[in-house]
Amino acid sequence: MGSAIIWVPAAIYLFATGQLWQGAFIVGFFVIVIGLVDNILRPLLVGKDTRMPDYLILIATLGGMEIYGINGFVIGPLIAALFIACWNLLSGREHAGNTDEIDEEFIEEAKNSRNE
């Protein structure tokens, strides 16, 4: 949905009032520019598989730009993604479902080496 909640009614109003060029410009601009940013640039800059909610990406991007300027567009979400990855790694959430893959022989070796 996003910004379409604003520009679609504006474009409909412009078309309804006979301002065809202005309505076409709004539709073209928002479809091309916003579509380009949302569907191409964001996955390239932030990453598709970050598993970060959109609101967190927005806050991290705005915060990064406030602190680091235009470079914060990339640095902010990067810091947020690193924080989430470290949090999941240290809290054990990342590997909680992989207990069936643990080699029993490896566990026995670890217990024996600790007892020595």
From TrEMBL:
Membrane topology: Multi-pass membrane protein
InterPro entries membership: AI-2E-like
Primary residence: membrane
This protein's name: Inner membrane protein
Transmembrane regions: 12-37, 57-90
Compartments it resides in: Membrane
PANTHER family: TRANSMEMBRANE PROTEIN, TRANSMEMBRANE PROTEIN 245
Keyword Transmembrane helix included in the entry's annotation: yes
Keywords associated with the record: Membrane, Transmembrane, Transmembrane helix
Family, similarity comment: Belongs to the autoinducer-2 exporter (AI-2E) (TC 2.A.86) family.
Domain of life where this protein originates: Bacteria
Record GO cellular component, one term: membrane
